[in-house]
Specification:
With 400 residues, the protein is mainly α. It folds into three domains: 2-44; 59-152, Receptor-associated Protein; 153-399, Type II secretion system (T2SS), domain F (Receptor-associated Protein), CATH 1.20.81.30. 74% of the residues lie in helices and 6% in strands. The chain has a three-stranded antiparallel sheet. Helix 2 packs antiparallel against helix 7 (140-191) and helix 10 runs antiparallel to helix 15 (343-399).
Amino acid sequence: MQAFRYKALDTAGHARQGTLEAENPRSAREALRQRSLTPLRLDAFNNSGSQGPARILSATLLADLTRQLAVLLDAGLTVEGALSVLMDQSDKPKVRERITNLRAEVLAGHSLAAALARYPRDFPPVYGALVRAGEQAGALPRVMSRLADDLERAAALRHQVLSASLYPALVSIVALAVVGALLAYVVPQVVAAFAHARQTLPLLTRALIATSSASRSLGPFLLLLLIVSGLAAPRFLAARPALAETLERRLLALPGLGRLLLALATSRIASTLGLLVDGGVPLVEALSIAARASRWRPLSQAVEQAARMVREGVPLSRALSETRTFPPVLSRLVESGEASGELPALLLRAAQQQESEARRRLSLLTALLEPALILTMGGVVLLIVIAIMLPVIEMNQLVH
């Protein structure tokens, strides 16, 4: 079976579009005619490319889809039946297309894990590895439920981070806009009154006038340069992995922010390892998958180093400790898990501990950052007011 995207006309002449499954294009057109539809366009889904099709499932959509699939499988439906239900109830055309194609792969005799592997941008390696382990162990509903729990928890943490970053970002944007407007429009009109004065202006006022002139002449260029740099930076760093790794190491070493980022990354790595090992994936393979899943190059290299040491017979706790990258609490909990034979549970506990640590540091950082931004903005505006008022005060003193 193969999935097709079609556009057709119904008997009333209205355009219809959607997806369907058929053995070949000819069978697809025949199926459309049986539905009283006149096919106008028929395209097979293209799965070619090393990176697979473009990503269409956000983190929230993936968590919701996984939860629904887990509930349907736990209710006794087959994989094909569960995908059919999800396909029928989806109200997003692109999501329906993705589920339709997955169902077509399953109907063709492929496993769900093999079907998911066709879309690596939507379903990361850890997702496919857990599904494959669940299928092999005959415990796919339980594995999908655990995976849904993890995805929902990660989505909630990501939402908290974004929400906490929103207010400082808005304050910074408003502050820059206000200061820019003052320098570009207000200050020139006010200081124009001093242009014909024979007295020497105070140093602070002269600095303000120079800054205002520079902002008017160079401001648009600097803004454009900032936007272009922000858009080009990811590609520039992707082409220079050594430079990107150096920047990431320095970012993780920053006081305050670095600890927060390390806690977030460690939580995801520990959670990934716990889920994979609990799902029956061998430890060395689980470490390799966790290394590929991490977005931080220094942490990926540390996990790969730990995987090599574990392959040579070194305990995981010692391997993680010798990387000198992760918080000591991770290796201590892993050591306890190895001693008690409950490594998956202790890895998941370590993930929860690091997540709690990240939440605490995020709250503290936000509490410190918000008043600091307000004070900084107030200080800049105060300097502008003082620079404007100093000549006025000096002129009044000369008059008296």
